[in-house]
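hi support,

uploading two proteins for the ticket. first:
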Amino acid sequence: MTRDHPICAVLDACVLYPAALRDVLLSATDESLFRPVWSDEILAETDRALARSPRALTSEQRARLFNAVRRTFPDATVRIASWPGPVPRLPDPHDEHVVRCALAADARLIVTMNLRDFPDPHLHPSGLAAVHPDRFLCTLAAWEPATLDRLVTEAALRMTHPPRSRDDFLDALERTVPRFAALMRGDLGEG
């Protein structure tokens, strides 16, 4: 990844599911730090996960969320049927739609917490790499530390149900991106 040419990255369902992580990642796109892509299949998988969660959103809340995502990022949804070529075999064939999305979008990165499901030896021949959102956000923060710090503060302020302080928001982020949360708290040195 280089700061001068924002990379195109597939956001897997597992990184779109946690509200705090989703908010920071999507806010980073407003700053042109990267260009997100996903498929209808990825959004449907996210929707199913949100419907099953312990604090499940109602179908109306989920519809509003995904309508807002589609409206805000009109170019992010990729038709995976547009990729006619072969797709690398993965340990779980149910994840191959994510790779198809990356190939159709000419993305080089798949941002996912499920790195085991996207092994490097399977992805590299296609020019793809999987990266954990913790590493991805730490890289973005290395490029634009003040911007990411501001995005975290703004995201915390948007959380109203229930309201969250910046520390509460960082606690929520810590569950999925602990190094990034520590970095935003000032607990890690740069780099």
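and the second one:
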Amino acid sequence: MTLRELAEAVGISAPFLSDIEHGRRQTNEYDALAKALDVPVDELKALDGRVPAELKAWLAQNPQLVSLLKDLRDSGMPIPLEALRATLKKPRS
């Protein structure tokens, strides 16, 4: 779905939607956005304002990571965050 298609489905302009995406504006159109994106509205609200812009950009450049993160969440297993951080801090050879 393109930005314009999503904006049309929600009933807002594409530039306004782009501003929302980049954190420059806020919206209360959660229900319409969630419906158009086919995601639970609570999941959408949980993302609003909590994800730093640089992380949003990185995820946008690596969309496969979103699926991986959802799989991790849905697995019900604890995620060893400290072990992952330690792995990232090790020098690469």
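thanks. also noticed: The helical segments are 3-10, 14-21, 30-37, 41-47, 53-61, 64-75, 81-89.
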